[in-house]
Design goal:
This protein has three helices and nine strands. It has a single domain, classed as Aminopeptidase (3-Layer(aba) Sandwich). A hairpin with a 7-residue loop joins strand 3 and strand 4. By secondary structure, the protein is α+β, with helices and mostly antiparallel strands. The two termini are about 30 Å apart. The chain binds coenzyme A (COA). Coenzyme A binds next to helix 1, strand 4 and helix 2. The site of coenzyme A (COA) has 17 residues, from helix 1, strand 4 and helix 2.
Length: about 180
């Protein structure tokens, strides 16, 4: 398996992987979101990575720019979405996409990564519930799924010293993307 930055020529294949991973109901909307984010100037800098098995795209991850109100000088990112096609799931592809993204973001100076996702999955990659740590999501997250809004610090000491509302790229800034 190879993980590398997505190229323009990968677009159709990575959108197909998004559709396949998220299924008939959610897939088309997620693929549309990814396409919008990739051309959204407010999403930049972004990191878009594909996992390849031979020439097949088996997974895709996207990190886009985030800003923390009152701490706008702190570089931050939002992880959304992460997709691994069913035939390649449970083999560590998702984990490797996350870790490679974290490595690239860390090198570029990003300090915090946020995600709204499965609270049983992301904590194994260092994410912790963000709400109780003082980070408000772009849209209110219902109490019963509050732990789906998570943060990972890439620089020790960030959590605890910074708090605030997190703002996302324009293409992600719609309430329907913030319902877990
Ligand atoms: C979630 C997803 C990205 C995981 O990718 P993956 O390559 O299978 O993940 P990994 O191989 O790194 O990790 C697999 C482990 O995560 C667990 N896992 C997978 N999905 C999970 C979930 N929704 N909740 C909790 N644990 C989950 C698996 O049970 C497995 O556990 P094990 O190691 O104890 O056996 C993939 O299943 C997927 O694309 N799902 C559909 C789209 C989606 O839900 N994306 C995430 C949106 S937040």
């Amino acid at each position: 398996m190879i993980i590398r930055e997505a190229l323009g020529a990968d677009l159709a294949a990575l959108l197909a992987a998004e559709r396949e991973a998220f299924g008939e109901e959610e897939g088309p909307e997620i693929a549309k979101l990814v396409e919008s984010l990739l051309t959204d100037l407010t999403a930049k800098p972004l990191v878009s990575l594909v996992a390849l098995s031979g020439r097949q795209v088996t997974g895709h991850i996207l990190f886009t720019r985030a800003q923390i109100a009152s701490n706008e000088h702190i570089p931050a990112a939002i992880l959304a979405p992460l997709a691994v096609i069913p035939a390649s799931q449970n083999r560590g592809v998702g984990g490797r996409l996350i870790e490679e993204g974290v490595r690239i973001l860390s090198e570029s100076g990003v300090k915090l990564i946020f995600v709204l996702g499965h609270p049983g999955y992301y904590p194994r990659y260092g994410f912790r519930p963000a709400g109780t740590l003082g980070f408000e999501a772009p849209y209110p997250i219902p109490e019963e799924v509050a732990d789906a809004w998570m943060v990972r610090e890439l620089s020790p000491g960030m959590i605890g010293s910074i708090k605030g509302k997190v703002h996302c790229a324009a293409a992600l800034d719609r309430p329907e993307y913030w319902r877990e």
